[in-house]
Design goal:
By secondary structure, the chain is of the alpha/beta class. The chain has helices at 5-13, 53-59, 66-70, 88-95, 101-104, 151-158, 171-178, 203-216, 227-230, 256-260, 263-279, 297-305, 310-333, 351-356, 371-382, 405-421, 431-435, 449-455, 492-495, 520-527; strands at residues 42-48, 74-80, 110-112, 122-124, 164-168, 184-188, 193-194, 236-237, 243-244, 289-295, 337-342, 363-364, 389-391, 395-399, 425-430, 465-469, 473-474, 496-503, 509-510, 515-516. Helices cover 33% and strands 15% of the residues. The strands form 5 sheets. Strands 1, 2, 5, 6, 7, 10, 11, 18, 19 and 20 form a 10-stranded mixed β-sheet that branches. The chain has a 4-stranded antiparallel β-sheet with strand order 13-14-16-15, sandwiched between helices. Mean pLDDT is 94; it is low at 1-19 and 22-35.
Amino acid sequence: MKLFRPLAAATALLAAAPLFAQEATPPAQVLPSEAPRAAPSLVVVVSVDQFSADLFAEYRAQFSGGFVRLMTGAVFPSGYQSHAATETCPGHSTILTGDHPAKTGIIANDWTDFNAPREDKTVYCAEDESVPGSNSNSYTVSDKHLKVPTLGEWMKLADPQSRVVAVSGKDRSAVMMAGHKTDEIWWWNGKAFVSYAGRAEPAMVTRMNANVAKRIGEEQEPLALPPFCQARSRAIPLWNGRTVGDGRFARAAGDTSAFRASPEFDEAILATAAGLATDMKLGQSGHTDLLIVGASATDYVGHSKGTEGSEMCLQLLSLDQTLGKLFAVLDKTGVDYAVVLTADHGGHDLPERNDDHAAPMAQRIEKDVTSGTIGKAIAAKLGIAGTVLTGGPGGDVWFDPKLTKVQRAAAQAEALKQYAANPQVQAVFTRAQIEATPIVHTPPETWSLIERARASYDPQRSGDLVVALKPRVTPILAGGPGNVATHGSFWDYDRRVPILFWRKGMTGFEQPLSVETVDIAPTLAALIHVPVPVAIDGRCLDLDAGAGDSCK
């Protein structure tokens, strides 16, 4: 399929990486080869933020680029981010550690730590809160909260000359997949690709930043809609005259937020990754290297526009072509490389369009289920001064540590009663209940709600209560200027993601039964003959379609 207007325009911005300025080899070609036996020289891990199993199923027949190649490999359409906290940071922490968030320590994007050494007690998952003058919105990026090693660290333990390179649209996805020992790690900070303080900026990154800045400074005209996307283009009225659903990524010059929520963003991310792979000659040193790519635009599109309009259609078809370009660059190196693509979580469309699409039970959260509202009601009833509850409308909720033992017991009893009575709440679990629940290793679709909560529960960081909202309840109030759709629930539309493995010469197959994202790291470790040095939650998936076993 010929590239749409966005990618043709973005080619100019990607002049920093001449690799993407050329036409990709048609990824749909099946490249003949003998079945590979030796370890690949390069492992490429791609996480597409908010790429749900539902979106993969909806669009897989429309793909003609990089996804087509991946679908000739081992296809697991029902991968699971099995835990309850289906957010970006926890999800990325599972992909290359082999562990659920209960072990990685990454229980949410943010959590409350009343002992944090600053006034702001909210802690961001990828920050160092001990830095003077920091807060959870203005922070120093750090890997300190990730409690376990990653695949890249296993590789360096087995062979110190293996290299780990990560590029992502978000700091938290780069950090949680790459881990504590990286050779290059770059993420988008809203204006440019940056890294840890003191790291030298490669010439490739410098050129890319200059070209991205130039491109953002130019106006982007509306994109052409292919027929498949035309059928999805319909304006959905929200509030205050706001509509979504028929957008085509027109952008005013200088609008960095619109750039971030567009196909242009992913092309910049993947081009930067391809440029580093080329300049560093990844996979060409005689030692297996790891390239990690966090494609973040799908998540920004999903949050700001929802998942079922023209915007998501253009985004995914464009990403398909961009992936093809990345693979074409790697093909030209002659390196034997393996790829896995997955997602950190799924997503849920906005209630207003779900209502039109035969799901009238979809709804936005009401103010009476927020922790602030419930906390005030408890304080008034029990005669407690100050804040009682802190946390989100769903997920982790903390009691104020200043409460006396008697006050806390009474507050918990009242909170359980109020949450249970709320029509938008499915369940609420106490710390004691969750800690008494073992982590299970059964098929993830069979897990109870409390088992899902346990898989993302860390007693040192998680809340005193964990609240599960009912299915199809979007925890975003109507009327605001920000996001219109989200994820983060206990339910399978947020838990299910595709997992696709590909390597030249492999015999492909599709396994519709469930697997987990924690299975990715041990599977790749077996493929590159690297021992797993610690006990993990995941298992190795046999990628040999025949009688052989890639896990041995």
